[in-house]
Design brief:
The complex is a heterodimer.
Chain A: E1 3-7, E2 10-14, E3 19-26, E4 32-38, E5 44-50, E6 56-58, E7 64-68, E8 73-78, E9 87-94, E10 105-106, E11 110-115
Chain B: E1 5-7, E2 10-13, E3 19-24, E4 31-37, E5 44-50, E6 53-57, E7 64-68, E8 74-78, E9 87-94, E10 103-104, E11 108-112
Parallel strand pairs in B: 2-11
Antiparallel strand pairs in B: 1-3, 3-8, 4-5, 4-9, 5-6, 7-8, 9-10, 9-11
Classes of the chains: A mainly beta, B mainly beta.
Amino acid sequence: AQSVTQLGSHVSVSEGALVLLRCNYSSSVPPYLFWYVQYPNQGLQLLLKYTSAATLVKGINGFEAEFKKSETSFHLTKPSAHMSDAAEYFCAVSEGYGGSQGNLIFGKGTKLSVKP
Amino acid sequence: AAGVIQSPRHLIKEKRETATLKCYPIPRHDTVYWYQQGPGQDPQFLISFYEKMQSDKGSIPDRFSAQQFSDYHSELNMSSLELGDSALYFCASSLRDRTDTQYFGPGTRLTVL
């Protein structure tokens, strides 16, 4: 069974500082990995995804993530935080596409705060 | 571009009542997923459908049922509501062969009093 673990339920950074949100996964098959962002009282928006192509994945809003199989990690980074990045971020895994493999399994989420 | 539509956006019910949530996927998307997100929790997969057939089942209570119709919209029916059912219910849609790209609706916030 797959699972994801997000280290740190709350992360606080200063505006302009590096953002690093950690995610480790467990999967018995090559995983598809995702990062979603959720603003208060809104739905989930896909930031980026890894689907077995390039290990360094670039997403929207300047975010990127690197798939490291040896470390079973898929950490999310952004070089310079902006106030508008304050939100909750969810790492998710699925076994691939098609049929029952498309269901997403989410981590517990990391709430990012950005200080002026 | 058209997005996933969910209705209603907010719903307040009493314990033991029933509720029906609706999801209208992005045009041409044939696969629908339902997720439940409790207060301060991560989204949990409930159930999915492809071409009106149940595709997979997650942690959906027996009191809940769902179906997908010929126009691909889906309804989640919830009976004998409990306080613990209060949550944000998301619907997501995708193409069958592109479930790596799911688009989420804004959610329906259900409050059970």
